[in-house]
Design a protein that fits this description.
single chain, about 220 residues, alpha+beta, two-stranded antiparallel sheet, two-stranded antiparallel ribbon, 7 helices
Length: about 220
C-alpha cells in the first residue's frame, strides 16, 4: 500500500506551486497573456477538489480555515446593462486603444469592489461576472475552463463559445471612443485570462495573510 505524504512533503509542494504561480504571474504582467493557462492549472492544483482528488490546500487541512481576498464587482439585479465585468477593469492604453486589465494592487479599486475576505466555497462559486450573452461566471468557472478545456492541462476538441467570446470577441461588450470625433471601438484583450490573473493575485494575498497555517 502506498505511503501517505507527510506534512513536510505537502508543504514543500505548496512552496513549489506558490513559486509557479508567482513566476507565471510575473510573466503575464510583462505581456505573456498565455501564462494565464499555467496560472489556472496551478490554481486548480491548489484549490479544486473532486470526488477522485483533493486539492493541495485540502490535503494540508487548511482550506476551510482560510479567508480569501475578494476584489470582484457584484452583479446588480436592477442594472439593465447586459454585462458585468467582475474582476477586470478597463484602461485606456494610448494611441486610441483600450484594454481589459487586472487591477492587482496597482490600480485603486472602487468602493463597490472592496469586500471582506470570504470563505472558500463562497469565494470560489460566487457568480460575479456576466458576459454580453448573459452567461454567468465565477472563479471556479474561469479557472477550470482555462485549465481543463483551453490548453492549460487539456485541450477540449470542441470550442467553448462562452470562453471564445471573452477571449477573442470582447465578450463583455464594452467600447470606448477612439477620439473626440472617432467611432466607438471594442476593448481589447482576453478578459478570461485577465480574470484568472486577478484570481491568482487574490490567492497570493490570501496565502500571505495566512502564513501561520503553513508552518
Amino acid at each position: 500500500m502506498p505511503a501517505q505524504r507527510n506534512r513536510a512533503g505537502l508543504l514543500e509542494l505548496l512552496d513549489e506551486n506558490v513559486s509557479f504561480l508567482k513566476a507565471s504571474a510575473a510573466s503575464f504582467d510583462t505581456g505573456c497573456e498565455a501564462e494565464a493557462k499555467r496560472l489556472a492549472v496551478t490554481l486548480r492544483v491548489l484549490l479544486h477538489d473532486t470526488a477522485a482528488s483533493s486539492s493541495l490546500l485540502a490535503q494540508l487541512g487548511v482550506k476551510s480555515q482560510m479567508k480569501f481576498a475578494d476584489t470582484a464587482a457584484r452583479i446588480v439585479p436592477t442594472n439593465l446593462l447586459p454585462s458585468a465585468p467582475g474582476l477586470v477593469l478597463m484602461q485606456m492604453t494610448g494611441g486610441g486603444s483600450a484594454t481589459y486589465i487586472a487591477p492587482l494592487d496597482v490600480v485603486p479599486l472602487p468602493p463597490s469592489r472592496i469586500h471582506q475576505p470570504a470563505g472558500f466555497d463562497d469565494w470560489w462559486t460566487l457568480e460575479f461576472a456576466r458576459d454580453s450573452e448573459r452567461t454567468l461566471w465565477c472563479r471556479k468557472k474561469f479557472v477550470l475552463t482555462m485549465a481543463n478545456k483551453e490548453g492549460g492541462a487539456h485541450v477540449d476538441p470542441n470550442l467553448n463559445s462562452a470562453y471564445e467570446r471573452l477571449a477573442r470577441n470582447n465578450g463583455f461588450g464594452f467600447s470606448h471612443a477612439s477620439s473626440d470625433t472617432g467611432p466607438f471601438m471594442p476593448f481589447e484583450g482576453n478578459a478570461a485570462a485577465v480574470s484568472v490573473r486577478q484570481i491568482a493575485h487574490e490567492f497570493l494575498k490570501s496565502y500571505e495573510a495566512h502564513d501561520h497555517l503553513f508552518t
